[in-house]
Amino acid sequence: MTTIGLIHPGAMGASVGAAGTHNQHRVLWADADRSNETRERATRGKLEDCNSVANLVSESDVILSVCPPHAAEDVASEVIDCGYKGIFVEGNAIAPARSHVIADRITAAGARFVDGGIIGGPAWQAEAGTMFYLSGVDAPEIAALFDGSPLHTSVVSDQIGSASALKMVFAAYTKGSTALLTTILAVAEKQGVRANLEQQWGEAFTQKTHKQVAGNTAKAWRFTGEMEEIAATFAGAGFSDGFHLAAADIFSRLKDFKDTPATSIDQVLDELS
Amino acid sequence: MTTIGLIHPGAMGASVGAAGTHNQHRVLWADADRSNETRERATRGKLEDCNSVANLVSESDVILSVCPPHAAEDVASEVIDCGYKGIFVEGNAIAPARSHVIADRITAAGARFVDGGIIGGPAWQAEAGTMFYLSGVDAPEIAALFDGSPLHTSVVSDQIGSASALKMVFAAYTKGSTALLTTILAVAEKQGVRANLEQQWGEAFTQKTHKQVAGNTAKAWRFTGEMEEIAATFAGAGFSDGFHLAAADIFSRLKDFKDTPATSIDQVLDELS
Q1: How many C-beta atoms lie closer than 10 Å to residue A124's C-beta?
Q2: Within chain A, where are the H helices?
Q3: Looking at the complex, does the CB of residue B197 fall below 8 Å from at least one CB of chain A?
């Protein structure tokens, strides 16, 4: 039995923690904020509250970092500052170069590092198909923790950075194409040719696009940072970062839909007009 | 019967000219270069060679400009310099603001101006579904020339710029998403995670994407200018030009496939490595 620690469990993190309990591992959580939502998620996931990050770090064999991209370094710092010596799994949507930077800090502090990237939504049921990609020499050990659980795992390679790279190139299309379609509709609306564009697209593609664009607005605020990470990944590989800096821009213009998502395409285009 | 002039008929232009002959209009062509390919296309389209641009301009009631985006101003200049007073149809993939600039020059010279944008491939058969979108006060007159021909027409509005805007927002997705997918595969290859990405995508999406990316390479060289026009269209509407400047960049890296298109995805990725 392994003790797994989860700092600040969000919607995704709590489901990953819950999957960790599947094989009778002990999964701890600790959160400075302790909002009701965090507590409810932790309870749903059968996570054990250990009261402080210091306790969590001292008791955990494995710590999973699952947080918004901008917070990845801070989570690693919290863990290092508490003197952690176990395996740190960096599971966030960050550029491989940033994963390397965090890996260097973690290993310099005497802990071990596994790179990770999650593709899909929260992993409460196996049917959700959520994949936890892992890389690094200790990746197989982490994958084994979730054997048979609702969270599917796959070891990409023994190299730090591969799991992050995979997450980046996958999200580059799903979220990048949504950003592109959102911007196209906004430009078409501004130019007074949206109805013509939609007629040329045809009913099926138009309806699918409206659903995709409006359905994305609740999450747009937190995709901005991820788009910047993808942009950095592309630039790091020698290609233009323009697609995803543009995607970050359009998502940032939709940030006010965080709590009250758009229910129609017209609402999205009003916001962008 | 109307006399229609077509300068430098390319693959698309010749088919548009051929559609013009459907209603027994006389369609003239003239080309300084007179390559064998141009001559063959003109012959196929039943276009009448009038030997010089000066003759074409003096005999035509309507002149159709159908050329690569970078050449649009030059074609308009040639026509203006020959003292043209008929209707000039700007049918190219250019930003609406550029169409306005050309319109101002054409009308200042005493001719009339119709904005246009072609969506689809060459219009040799009606089944190809090629659409010639037109806008401006004289647009219905131009549309009527092609009644019942293999080239479908649609009047977008009486405003200069709408037809160009429609062409831009439509191509923004078809070509923009191809550019994005091409770049994603190149980054994935560089990061050593292409096989993993394709497994996550699944067989159907991967095969479709390979076909789309490799099938685009023959045309990539001439899409660079069009991507820059779309970028200008987005910027002009107050949105980021990043998507399509990035698209222009990746297409420019594929320019050497002009005469010998890639036959496999591996060939495309070799070129980009």
Answers
A1: 17
A2: 11-21, 36-44, 53-59, 72-81, 96-108, 139-145, 162-190, 194-201, 203-215, 217-236, 242-252, 265-272
A3: yes
Mean pLDDT of A15-38: 89
Say if B135 is an interface residue toward chain A (CB within 8 Å). Answer: no
Q: How high is the pLDDT of residue B36? A: 85
Given its phi and psi angles, is residue B34 left (phi above 0), alpha (psi -120 to 50 degrees) or beta? Answer: left
Which CATH architecture describes the domain B3-160?
3-Layer(aba) Sandwich (3.40)
Band of residue B117 on the pLDDT scale cut at 50, 70, 90: very high
- Indicate the range of A56-60, B11-15, B131-135 predicted with least confidence: B11-15
- Closest residue to B234, CB basis, from A172, A183, A193: A183
What CATH superfamily is the domain A172-272?
N-(1-d-carboxylethyl)-l-norvaline Dehydrogenase; domain 2 (1.10.1040.10)
Q: Indicate where chain A has its CATH 1.10.1040.10 domain(s).
A: 172-272
Is the full-model pTM beyond 0.90?
Answer: yes
Q: Domain B166-272: give its CATH code.
A: 1.10.1040.10
What average pLDDT does range B219-224 have in this prediction? Answer: 93
ipTM: 0.95
Q: Where in chain B is the domain with CATH 1.10.1040.10?
A: 166-272
Residue B66 Cα distances to B59, B147, B151, angstroms: 18, 19, 14
Q: How many CB pairs under 8 A join A and B?
A: 155
Mean pLDDT of B229-235: 98
